Amino acid sequence: MNKKLDQIERILIIRLSAIGDVIHALPVAKAVRESYPEAEISWIVESKAQDLVVDNPNLDNVILLPKEEWKAEFKEAKWATLKRAKGFFDELTRKYDFDLALDVHGLFKSGLTAYLSGADRIIGPGDCREGSWLFYDQQVELPDRIHQIDRNLTVAEAIGAESEEVSFDIAVTEEERERVEELLTDLEVNKEQPLVAINPFTSWSSKDWLPDRYALLADRLISKLGCEVVFTGGPGDREGVAEIMELMAQPAYNLAGKTNLKELAEVYNRTDLFIGGDTGPMHLAVAMDTRVIALMGPTTAATHGPYGGQHIVIQPELDCIECWDRVCERNNECMKEISGEEVFNAVREALGSDRNGS
After folding, report:
1. Which of 10, 35, 78, 238 is the most exposed place for a label (fewest CB within 10 A)?
2. Distance (Å, rounded) from C-alpha 107 to C-alpha 130?
3. Which of 125, 157, 189 is the last residue of a domain?
4. Does the keyword Cell membrane apply (predicted)?
């Protein structure tokens, strides 16, 4: 029998991936903690986004779902992998004995995870997909076209979880801060100048702005506005960033692949402005209270853009906007419509005000 809300003692939050989506769900942890101060709150997550929730002050436990390991092993040892997965969830059930699972992810893998967690009650979003509703005891009705952060908080409101502020609470350690200080010192970044981070690549080719325009923009930021420019990204972006820098006349810095997620968060914490497309690092910059200029085309700014009125979104008006195509069949016309002059003027506007946009 399901327990009443005032009897809930052990809560599982489920948001497994990706980086930007996990960031959008982080405020749920604070809302749940404030409304259930005595509860034991756990979060289950996949490895790529694990760092974002480790040491979160609102959580008692962070549980790693080893999906990638299972996936790699399944081809060679299907039965053994299934036994490992069963053992994992059996142990999860015994160890935590969850009263409630709050699935804000809303896909089959998260719904199944909620079911296998053994939680007495499972709540999920009304916009769930892939049949995940089959695992829920309750679906939460959601308004149309609200930001993903507000969507996740609406799901949490179903258990009475609310907070007066949206807080991400990404915990950067002193060691990680020292590592970033060492990186910037070794690069001889001038800390007296405005520091601008550019993250030029995303996981979808349709969301990427043109490399030569990033190069020209970075040159102008350095020569006209006296900025220091650091390029960020994952290990797979390092070569692409190097190619952008080869097009530049001014010196910049390539940090792509040189930081983990927490270190990248600290880089953005020290940055006056972030420029880039709709990608995890953009949302990470938002979480670190850094002002963002988001260059958007195929995705929806109202739901997936930078959260908060202090940020600037540049998105052209075309019939094909918000197509949500990962690979564009129209030669990336929406991103090509964003001019370097438009972005440069947005930077001048942003740097002319403080980080909070006042």
Report:
1. 78
2. 6
3. 157
4. no
Q: What is the CATH number of the domain that holds 134?
A: 3.40.50.2000
Q: What is the pLDDT of residues 167-187, one digit of tens each?
A: 999 999 999 999 999 999 999
DSSP-assigned states of every residue in 18-37: -HHHHHHHHHHHHHHHHH-T
Q: What is the DSSP string of 81-93?
A: HHHHHHHHHHHHH
* pTM exceeding 0.70: yes
Tell how far CA 57 is from the center of its chain: 18
CB 284 within 8 A of CB 304: no
**pLDDT exceeding 90 applies to what percent of the chain?**
92
* Same domain for 87 and 137: yes
Contact of 277 with 240, CB cutoff 8 Å = no
Q: How many separate domains does the chain show?
A: 2
Residues 266 and 173: beta-carbon distance below 8 Å: no
pLDDT tens string 188-228: 999 899 999 999 999 999 999 999 999 999 999 999 999 99
* 124 and 63 part of one domain: yes
Residue 47 lies in a domain: yes
Q: Looking at the structure, tell me whether residues 182 and 153 fall in a common domain.
A: no
Q: What is the DSSP letter of 205?
A: G
Query: Does residue 143 sit in the same domain as residue 190?
Result: no
Query: Could you count the other beta carbons within 10 Å of the beta carbon of residue 247?
Result: 14
Tokens 């040892």 correspond to 77
Helix (H, G, I), strand (E, B) or coil at 48: helix
> Which domain does 106 fall in, by range?
5-157
